[in-house]
Amino acid sequence: MSVTPIRLFGDPVLRTPAAPVTVFDRELQTLVADLTDTMMNAPGAGLAAPQIGVGLRVFTYYVDGQLGHVINPELTLSPELQCGPEGCLSIPDLRFDTTRSLRAVARGFDMHGEPVTIEGSDMLARCFQHETDHLDGILFVDRLDPTARRRALKAIRDAEWAGLPGPIIRDSPHATYGRAL
């Protein structure tokens, strides 16, 4: 399929809740393939459809060698929490400690409309929460405590990419920001 430009912080599509997928067809399969190719190329641990400008409830993930996707996800979260560094392909080069549930169960569908249930802890649980937030128009900086959020927003304003017009493609030779979500 293809590597697609990733939308950056400030693009309105990142703040717009995504619509549920209602048609499971070849076009959806192409979207999943494009998300996967783009995520792997970035490299990232996850990528949601709004990050490539598509307002549908679809995300892909690649954590601890586990590659997959979930369509129309619904999460069940554990009450136990974890706090650790989190980044985002739409907010390149920045990482901030973010509190998330330690475990998550993602229920939804695969690209063929078959039900899927995936359980994850630690990084996989963090990824599920991060990508589902994208589908709801929420960015990880929204989850930070007020002091960290102020620092994050200042770092975003000061970032080299801040204010650039349009999306950019993160190709591997220039992807120095590690495995962002």
TrEMBL record:
It comes from the Bacteria. Keywords: Hydrolase, Iron, Metal-binding, Protein biosynthesis. Its EC number is 3.5.1.88. GO terms for molecular function: metal ion binding; peptide deformylase activity. Fe cation binds at C88, H130, H134. It is an enzyme of class 3 (hydrolase). Binds 1 Fe(2+) ion. Its cofactor is Fe(2+). GO terms for biological process: translation. The active site is at E131. It catalyses: N-terminal N-formyl-L-methionyl-[peptide] + H2O = N-terminal L-methionyl-[peptide] + formate. InterPro entries: Peptide_deformylase, Peptide_deformylase_sf. PANTHER family: PEPTIDE DEFORMYLASE (PTHR10458), PEPTIDE DEFORMYLASE, MITOCHONDRIAL (PTHR10458:SF2). Belongs to the polypeptide deformylase family. Removes the formyl group from the N-terminal Met of newly synthesized proteins. Requires at least a dipeptide for an efficient rate of reaction. N-terminal L-methionine is a prerequisite for activity but the enzyme has broad specificity at other positions. This is Peptide deformylase. The gene is def.
